[in-house]
Design a protein that fits this description.
Elements (H helix, E strand, L loop, with lengths): L1 E6 L8 H15 L3 E7 L12 E4 L1 E4 L2 E7 L3 H7 L4 E5 L4 H12 L3 E4 L4 H7 L5 H14 L2 E4 L2 H9 L5 E3 L16 H7 L5 E6 L12 H4 L4 E6 L5 H7 L4 E4 L3 H10 L2 E3 L9 H8 L4 E4 L4 H4 L6 E4 L4 H12 L2 H15 L4 H19 L3 H4 L1
Parallel strand pairs: 1-2, 1-6, 2-3, 6-7, 7-8, 8-9, 10-11, 10-13, 11-12, 13-14, 14-15
Antiparallel strand pairs: 4-5
Length: 372
């Protein structure tokens, strides 16, 4: 099949949507399919890839200029005219245009819900949650089916009137993210006094609420490590005294940092899935996260980590302190964490996705009377 992946974000952007689209495209190539990515134009250096990437004009998002919104053009329709299936990654602006074009061309589509846009709209004051849900409901109900990454996302979508919702989780590179990557050298550099390393990996943006790690920074014998970059970085350097900021890291270096942590802490309550949480678990690191969104599916409280009330900095600090004080428990949680996610390969979830493509394609081929 020839599949168009219409995405609101793509490398060099660093976020969950961009990463998952890359993984999907890689899997399609590996299985002998022919992907083409349609994405917003970027100001950074785009990577060379073994499949075509069509870049459409883009504009800064109001309230968050670092994120650019793709503008649907005639080139989008021309591209979709050549494909068998349209995959819409976190559709909102460019994705809405892609879905409209797909329907006009009679091309079956799958819409993937990946971003808690209603919460972002409220946080960045670019509209109301209700308006965002109305727009999302309109977009997703025009797609052949919607794929959501967690049980919380499935419930939220159905609760707001989205139809034909299916659960489709994310994979993890369990070979790259592995406890064996633990590095004595990294630990000496980050914790020269033998401190317990508590880490966060992800974008540094307002919605991630990384500032809630301030309490952990004050714990005796604990060193907080922040990996990532974003618009909130300058403020966080002031709010997290004593934390080590490593900037964005990738590939094998990132895997070594994950595995060298003692506890992974993810404060943000707006994750539809939580890929960094899953990568930490694959690295054999226990996780502290809010009892909201994707982490509810990923973390087994009292077995692979601890879940705390969302946006409760005191509870987050207490959970980190609890694990920091008990290395035996951390080791037990870490081993269970690795076992939980080791089989969640991108190949397995990629094949599930191909099943969804086949389903919408078969439905689209039915006579109108039967499909109705």
């Amino acid at each position: 099949m020839r599949i168009a992946l219409v995405t609101e974000s793509f490398p060099p952007d660093v976020n969950g949507v961009a990463n998952s689209v890359v993984r999907v495209a890689e899997h399609l190539v590996a299985r002998g399919h022919d992907p083409v990515v349609v994405a917003p134009a970027t100001r950074g250096a785009a990577p060379e890839l073994p499949y075509p990437v069509v870049r459409l004009p883009s504009v800064p998002m109001p309230g968050y200029a670092a994120f650019r919104l793709g503008v649907p053009t005639r080139q989008l329709t021309a591209t979709l005219r050549t494909v068998d299936v349209v995959h819409l990654a976190s559709p909102f602006v460019l994705g809405a245009g892609g879905l409209s074009a797909a329907r006009s061309l009679g091309v079956p589509s799958v819409a993937v819900y990946q971003t808690d846009v209603p919460s972002y709209a409220r946080l960045y004051r670019i509209g109301t949650e209700q308006a965002a849900w109305r727009w999302l409901r309109r977009i997703h109900n025009l797609a052949g089916r919607t794929l959501a990454p967690s049980s919380a996302s499935v419930a939220a979508l159905r609760g707001h009137g989205v139809q034909r919702v299916h659960l489709w989780r994310r994979g993890v590179d369990a070979g790259r993210f592995h406890p064996a990557r633990r590095s004595a050298g990294i630990r000496r550099a980050l914790a020269p006094g033998g401190e317990t390393l508590v880490g966060y990996v992800g974008r540094l943006a307002h919605e991630k609420h990384v500032e809630l790690l301030a309490g952990a920074c004050a714990l005796p014998g604990v060193r907080v490590v922040v990996v990532g970059d974003g618009p909130a970085a300058p403020a966080l350097r002031r709010q997290l005294p004593g934390a080590v900021f490593l900037g964005a890291r990738h590939g094998a270096q990132l895997a070594r940092i994950y595995a060298s942590l003692d506890v992974f802490a993810h404060p943000g309550p707006y994750e539809t899935f939580g890929q960094s949480v899953q990568e930490a678990l694959a690295s054999g690191v226990p996780v502290v996260a809010p009892a909201a969104g994707g982490p509810v599916d990923l973390v087994r409280p009292g077995a692979t980590g601890l879940l705390v009330p969302p946006l409760d900095g005191g509870a987050l600090t207490a959970a980190v302190a609890e694990l920091a004080a008990d290395p035996v428990r951390r080791a037990r949680f870490g081993a269970a964490a690795r076992a939980d996610v080791a089989a969640r390969s991108w190949a397995a979830v990629g094949d599930e996705l191909l099943g969804h493509y086949a389903a919408v394609t078969a439905f689209a081929a039915l006579p109108a009377a039967v499909a109705a």
